[in-house]
Each structure stands twice: as structure tokens, then as C-alpha cells.
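[Automated response] Your request has been received and processed.

Submitted sequence:
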Amino acid sequence: MAAPRKSRSLLLVGLLIVLLAIASSIAVYFFLDARDGNESADVVEEQPAEPPVPIFVTIQPFTVNLQSDYGDRLLYVGLSLRVNDDETKDFLTQHMPEVRSRLLMLLSGKSAEELIKPEGKIKLKQQILGLFDEPITTPQPTLAISDVLFSDFIVQ
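Generated structure:
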């Protein structure tokens, strides 16, 4: 009688080992599956939003006489304004003669020596942005100009 009882015990222990192996396999499967789902959700959330399409208002290049102690000096400059909305773009395009006139007045008061230096170009960008603080027309929508970009800049 000891033999059948021993075999039944071994069978029971073997069955428990198989059940534990199956249970642990299922637990590992669900754990890894849940972790994969979180990682894919993180990947979806971490994808950067597409940046807005930049809007530029191009100002055709022009030449300006500069102030100089050494004779005639010229500045050939082409630039673009980065704007934040189509309303600003449309307004500047409609009033381009006024914009160009303001730029010519600003640039003609500059000296070649200050515009040759990088600091002079940075200061000029800030002054160009400041040109639009004074209204062009009344009433005028709020202009959203975020940057001035030089495409041509030759001092002779």
C-alpha cells in the first residue's frame, strides 16, 4: 500500500509543478504584454507635434547709401519677415511701399562701420522689429512679426 500512496504523492507533486509552471508563464505573458502596451502608448504620446508652417513676407532686395567718413558706401540688403499669422502677412503685403520706405529711412541713417560687425546686424534686426511698433495705418490690426531674416547683406 505504500507504493500506490507514494506514486499518488509524486503524481500530485508533478501536477502542482506543471500548474505552477503554467501559472507563471501566463503571469509573465500578461506582465510583458501590459508593459509593451504602456511603451507603445508612451511612444505615441512622445511623438512631437508638427511645428506650424512658417509664414514669411519677402521684401525685395534694395540698395541704400550709408553714412561714412571715407566716401560713398552702399548697403545691398534683402530680407524676409517671419510672421505668425496670415492676417499680418496680408497687411504687410498690402502696405509694402510704406514698409520699404520705413526700412530705407532706417538703413540710410546707418554707418558702414556699425553694419559690418555681427553686433550691428543684431541691433539692426531689433530696430527693424521696432519699426512696426508705430502703426502704419489707423486702425491697424496687431502685427505678429517674430523675426527678421537677412537673405542678402552686402556692404560696399
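Summary generated for your ticket: The mean pLDDT is 87. The chain has five helices and three strands.
If you did not submit this request, please reply to this message.
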